[in-house]
Design brief:
Layout lengths: L1 H7 L37 H4 L2 H7 L2 H26 L4 E2 L6 H16 L8 E2 L2 H30 L5 E3 L3 E6 L2 E10 L5 E16 L2 E9 L5 E4 L4 E6 L11 H6 L2 E11 L4 E10 L3 E3 L1 E3 L3 E3 L6 E3 L7 E3 L3
Parallel strand pairs: 4-12
Antiparallel strand pairs: 1-2, 3-5, 4-5, 5-9, 6-7, 6-8, 6-10, 10-11, 13-16, 14-15
Helix pairs in contact: 3-6, 4-5, 4-6
């Protein structure tokens, strides 16, 4: 720890990191690989702690469709049960020989009412059946409006279609070494005005207490006009760098994390989009360099970007 304090005294500390300073009360990494904060919030009720709209926009596609279909069938089963308890004789047009067929026809009548497609050969008669069907029609209109909004929100939500390399590298750079992280766009979008920042988080001993320290890492190039191919973020490890003097053993034993923030303008959304990721020191390869991931095609008319080579690197001696 004395070595760490001596090295980091040369670097500018980031006092506005947004993270806590008490390392002994911090569990795990600061950010997950997909860019989400590694924080679990407790102390409030489950319903109060979740933004259902944001959850429905961010969950995987198969979960979203499953919830929509499950809700659809559960609601119709509920109203079919109400019609069955009221009595299917109040649903004009039902012709069934047993209870299962009666419930099935009540279920399909509920679907017609819920989706407001109009009645076929079955229609409600009597006050109770008509009252329940009117309530179901209202609920159907509201829920379909919400589902339509969720579908549109998922389809139109601005998202940075950018992938980062699985590992950061300590690679040769000019007459020294540098920390390198690579990224590349993977959709048919036009990205411009890309701006990146890298923050180093370290757990250091200070006054016999373990604390979190954060440092802004200077980049060779923080902004580029257009992000069409891969972009490698380069932090030269000079004497002013908080990583200066770190050996391979230090990266294997020290509790540290590299946090990457990216902001880029997407022409398709006509808006800025954000992307985050992080690399723990155990995810940093010491003594390696990225392989080139693009080349010209056979007739020299286009440049081919090989996205499967995003994390391709070769070992080198530093």
């Amino acid at each position: 720890m004395e070595f760490l304090k001596k090295i980091n005294s040369k670097a500018k500390q980031d006092t506005d990191s947004g993270f806590g300073t008490n390392a002994s009360n911090y569990g795990g990494r600061f950010f997950t690989k997909n860019g989400n904060a590694n924080v679990k919030k407790v102390g409030v009720g489950f319903v109060e702690s979740i933004s259902w709209f944001h959850t429905m926009l961010s969950i995987p596609r198969w979960k979203f469709l499953f919830i929509i279909l499950l809700f659809y069938f559960v609601v119709n089963l509920f109203f079919a049960t109400l019609y069955y308890l009221i009595g299917v004789e109040h649903l004009n047009g039902i012709s069934a020989e047993n209870d299962l067929e009666k419930f099935a026809q009540a279920f399909f009548f509920s679907i017609q009412t819920y989706t407001t497609v109009g009645y076929g050969h079955i229609n409600p008669t009597g006050f109770y059946a008509s009252f329940v069907s009117s309530i179901e029609a209202l609920i159907g209109l509201l829920t379909f409006a919400i589902a339509t909004g969720l579908f549109f929100g998922r389809f139109s939500k601005p998202e940075a279609f950018i992938r980062f390399s699985q590992n950061a590298l300590i690679a040769p750079y000019e007459n020294g070494i540098a920390l390198m992280v690579r990224m590349a766009p993977y959709k048919n979008t036009n990205l411009s005005e890309a701006e990146a920042r890298i923050t180093l988080g370290l757990s250091l001993e200070e006054n016999d207490k373990l604390v979190n320290k954060f440092y802004q890492l200077d980049l060779e190039m923080e902004k580029i006009n257009s992000l069409t191919l891969s972009w490698t973020l380069v932090h030269p490890i000079t004497k002013e760098s908080p990583l200066y003097g770190f050996s391979k053993n230090d990266f294997e034993t020290i509790d540290g994390e590299i946090i990457v923030f990216l902001k880029v303008f997407d022409d398709m959304y006509s808006n800025h989009v954000m992307k985050r990721t992080s690399f723990t020191f155990k995810e940093i390869i010491y003594g390696a360099k990225f392989n080139l991931m693009y080349d010209r095609n056979t007739d020299d008319t286009k440049t081919i970007l090989y996205l499967d080579k995003l994390n391709s690197y070769e070992k080198v001696v530093l």
